[in-house]
Amino acid sequence: MIELKKNHIYQGDCIEILKGLPSNSVDLIFADPPYNMQLKKELYRPNNTKVDGVNDLWDKFASFQEYDNFSIAWLKECRRVLKDTGTIWVIGSYHNIYRVGNIMLNLGYWILNDITWHKSNPMPNFLGTRFTNATETLLWCSKGENYKKYTFNHKLMKQYNGGKQMTSVWNIGLCVGSERIKGEDGKKAHSTQKPEGLLKRVILSTTKQGDVVLDPFFGTGTTGAVSKKLGRNFIGIEREQNYIQVAKTRIASINDLLPESSWIETAKEEQPKVPFVNLIRKNIINVGELLYTRKSFNKRAEVLIDGNLHYENNIGSIHRIGAIIQQTPSCNGWKFWYAFKNNKPLLLDDLRAQYIHEYKI
Ligand SMILES: C[S@@+](CC[C@H](N)C(=O)[O-])C[C@H]1O[C@@H](n2cnc3c(N)ncnc32)[C@H](O)[C@@H]1O
Q: Which residue, 28, 122, 127, 355, shows the most beta carbons closer than 10 Å to its own?
């Protein structure tokens, strides 16, 4: 038996390590297993540059049977290690999720949701032979049909989603920019680092503060980083020493525990970008309509056909005119301007949410 150490990364094969962990001991499992992409050769763009895809040794299996046997073994152990009140999330692409889902059902797991992660910035299909693949699926499961006392923070997720029930389609970008961990050579430290925004939703929705979250395919430690930020404990398992080092450095650099309220604020910022002119195109705002500032609605600007505002001698975006009025370097116009609808003042941010909801973007 292996001692269950919180906030620790175990190095080794996850099946062997899971076998040593005590039964009924963790509150949540997030698993991002190998995809088994079966890439036969390097992929090149039409301009002959190499595509930086998933071609790692850890993703190679000799056959579907070998992949299935591997999946059965780790999923069986996960079910044993999970508390009866716990749930498991498994993420995968079309290459593996159907095999994994079938195995999970055969092992007794009960699917609570299949979440579609819609990538707002997917990698194009360079050869132009198929549609751009812009989604992955997350299966969220309990241990079985009769295991009903699991955690689901319904109210929190509704708040997170601007007051509306969150659906099973999540629009989140791929992990890019400063969030993407790079090695000294400037190359990605890991080919499949997941965005923190994805783990944030998983952990906020299905755990409580202080819970233990296990990730048997820890990689760069995204699960550990988000668990730490949210006041949860993590347990990582990873075979490769270099990924463990990346994860340790990443998690050690996190000092502050973020209160849930601030995560909810950031979630709003994750909303898809909407040009203001789109609200005019959909008649949510009309050309010539007046927008008002929040302080007793004493300043107003006229909406122009191109989405700019006209205020005194100035013409500019909702943000620029807001900044001029406030005499600040910048301004978030969505949270600054009000439109009157049925004699009631409505913040542009709420009208933007209405647009996103109605046009499902
Ligand atoms: C898809 S990646 C996970 C990426 C991770 N979610 C992140 O955000 O960085 C899968 C990881 O599982 C590890 N792995 C593959 N097979 C394993 C096994 N049998 N035991 C432990 N780790 C394994 C790989 O080294 C790889 O880092």
A: 28
- The string of pLDDT tens digits covering residues 287-318 is 999 999 976 778 999 999 999 999 999 999 99
In the three-class reduction of DSSP (H, G, I as helix; E, B as strand; rest coil), residue 180 is classed as coil
For range 220-234, the mean pLDDT: 96
Ligand 1 neighbours by CB, cut-off 6 Å: 13-14, 32, 34, 58, 190, 192-194, 217, 219-220, 222, 237-240, 243
- CA of 63 from ligand 1 middle (Å) equals 19
Task: Name the percent of the chain lying above pLDDT 90.
Answer: 70
Which of the four pLDDT bands, split at 50, 70 and 90, describes residue 271? low
What sign has the CA pseudo-torsion 116, 117, 122, 125? negative
Closest ligand 1 atom to residue 74 Cα is 19
Q: What is the DSSP string of 254-267?
A: --PPPPHHHHHHHH
Averaged over 26-46, what is the pLDDT?
A: 82
* Mean pLDDT score across all residues of the chain: 91
Residue 183 CA, ligand 1 centroid: distance in Å: 17
Indicate which residue's Cα is closest to atom 5 of ligand 1.
Answer: 219
For residues 64 and 108, the answer to whether their CB atoms sit within 8 Å is: no
From residue 170, how far is each of 32, 138, 150, 191, 303 by CA, in Å?
17, 10, 21, 21, 32
- CB-based contact 20:2 (threshold 8 Å): yes
